[in-house]
Design brief:
Two copies of one chain form a homodimer. By secondary structure, the first copy, chain A, is mainly alpha-helical. Chain A folds into two domains: 63 residues, Winged helix-like DNA-binding domain superfamily/Winged helix DNA-binding domain (Arc Repressor Mutant, subunit A); 143 residues, Four Helix Bundle (Hemerythrin (Met), subunit A) (Up-down Bundle), CATH 1.20.120.530. The structure holds a DNA duplex.
Chain lengths: 239, 239
DNA sequence: GTCGTGGGATTGTTGAACAATACTTCAATC
DNA sequence: GATTGAAGTATTGTTCAACAATCCCACGAC
């Protein structure tokens, strides 16, 4: 290497997202993931290898690779010799999910003073997005914005691995709504809470924001658990 | 169902571990995982589909399913059309891993008062195990005990998902030692720290234990990052 | 020394085949 | 009528062989 090549070293690293296109298995996994998250595939449904491979024109082997990926994300469950099913979270799962979220979100918010200013801006953007969706009565977009809001809170910690983990947890949380047939417009009131949290954050009061968030999580968990137990005892859709 | 069947309902639930045996792909994944963690497969090494499928007498398809599982755990990295390689963590990965561990371990310890007493006992058992291994100069067992210690700390939170995530993080951390050719006996002094943390925990001083743990993590991260940058500049093993 | 340009090796994906297991149906029995 | 048992059927688990797509490497031209 000569001195004239120095500018090469100063170039930014190759972005992983730019590098190679995804494989067929990953594309299928992405598609199925979106179907599970948006409810096109209801919890408990069995995914037939033969039918899906025919419908999406991929071989069974490729499809099974996609199944493995999604099983690791807990969106599908794999039962030996029985097939794969869309996860059907239990009440215990709901409690566990909120336990995880407390561990991921609260410390991230409480130490938000060290966070990147860009990360705080992302929180505000998610709040704006959610309110806009509410104004248009676009409940699905509102749920997406709420997910992005909490993703942005966890991202304040600035850890790639925590971000990815949080993504999985939120995807699973969304599954919970489907298993309860929970209309997403019920969650509109929580948007005001989001706004308060961001305001406290932007004003430089992370502890206040964290306290608000803790109350938010308590309330949300209580609501979900209550609805869940009512459904489990009542005539909910069983499989 | 008649009244005479009531005793059936009172039976304990079927244990998941008991239910179905694992598939071939999962067994292969378990084996490869242990090879990566114990260093039989060095970081950066490429895993040839053909050679491994012949050596372990599984088809390429089955082997690829195992690869997908381990890629999601970040123990292997999959490059399209190039194959799978044992992960080679970078210095940025080390920092991220410790960031994650602070989020998982510190809150768990700080709220240890709510933890199951059995979980606290597991922490003590891991400490004992580590000291026994040190006395026998069994460095590999010492490393394993240390992993189990931190796993037990995270388990104080009582969340299944956090436990699994922590497991992955610790497995990756162990990879870091291999990428640096770091002899595990270097970590013997940390055992005394573990003992202090457990003592504070058992005495009912979780905040003290957390402070000790925070110092531990800071020291450990500093040591690793220092060694890492030295290796990256020096004549370390590149690929 | 750099830049094309092959050939060879490896991965990506498919389709078919068979074994192993689970599910379903239906008759026999109490 | 409900339960048990034993068929057959359907689905998954796994392997194998084949081919296309891509990458790697060595060779030669400039």
């Amino acid at each position: 290497m000569t001195a004239t090549d120095d500018h090469i070293d100063r170039l930014p690293e190759a972005d992983d997202a730019l590098a190679p296109v995804s494989s067929q298995a990953e594309r299928v996994a992405d598609m199925l993931r979106s179907f599970v998250i948006n409810g096109s595939l209801a919890p408990g449904v069995r995914l037939s290898e033969e039918r899906l491979s025919r419908k999406y024109e991929v071989s069974r082997n490729t499809l099974r690779e996609a199944f493995r990926l999604l099983s690791r994300e807990r969106l599908l469950v794999h039962q030996l010799h029985r097939g794969v099913f869309v996860s059907r979270p239990t009440c215990a799962d709901v409690r566990d999910l909120f336990s995880v979220r407390r561990h991921l979100e609260l410390p991230a918010v409480r130490r938000a003073d060290r966070a990147d200013t860009e990360a705080v801006r992302a929180v505000g953007a998610a709040v704006d997005e959610g309110e806009a969706a509410r104004d248009h009565a676009d409940w699905w977009a509102m749920g997406t914005a709420n997910m992005r809001f909490h993703q942005a809170l966890a991202a304040l910690a600035g850890s790639a691995r925590l971000n990815e983990f949080m993504n999985q947890v939120l995807a699973e949380t969304r599954l919970v709504f489907h298993v309860m047939n929970d209309p997403e417009e019920y969650h509109a009131p929580y948007l005001d809470w989001n706004r308060r949290i961001h305001t406290a954050l932007a004003a430089g009061h992370p502890d206040l924001a964290a306290d608000e968030l803790a109350a938010y999580l308590d309330a949300s968990e209580t609501q979900l658990v209550t609805a869940f137990t009512a459904m489990e005892n009542g005539p909910g859709p069983r499989s």
